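Q: Convert this sequence to structure tokens.
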Amino acid sequence: MTKFGVIFVIKLITAEKIMKKVNFFALIALVAVFSGACRKIQQLPDEPRVEFRSFTVTDTTDILGNVIKAGRLNFYFEDGDGDLGLASPELDVTDLTDTTNLFLVLYRKTGGVMVQVPEDDYMKPYSYRIPYMESPSQNKILKGTVTLTFLYLFYPPEFNDTVMYDFYVKDRADHLSNTESTCEIALSVNDIYKFPVN
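A:
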């Protein structure tokens, strides 16, 4: 009986120590959870913001198998109230809602200076539509990247053009983003152009 009592007391002390350790670790875990839960929700302006990341020039083929040049613009965006992107346009032709929300201006280097191309330039870019997006969480902020591919169907490689794009976006509340510029791009050279140049 005495030996059993000694063994029982030792187990009881060990169990108390374990409970103290468990309580200590549980307290640390609760503090960590509550400190994370109390973190302030990030806030951004309602106006979207864009940031140029890269422009890639490659050779590709069109639907007829002709070798053509392609350019791929990659940029980062964020929007504080999460209303960037447009739903697919309705078939109703009387619907006058906007169908584009990504706008580009093309510049071509002429005499060492970047000059905006005229309205009738064969390489003048169209306006484009970023698809409808919304955040599934309580925080409505949207962040991500957009990739836009250009096909230069009538671009002869011997032209050796150096170009640059300005671009901006508009959200569903008609807030315009900042205007961002790409770096200079030599269309005749297949490469990845980034800013700042590394």
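Confidence is low (pLDDT under 50) at residues 1-13.
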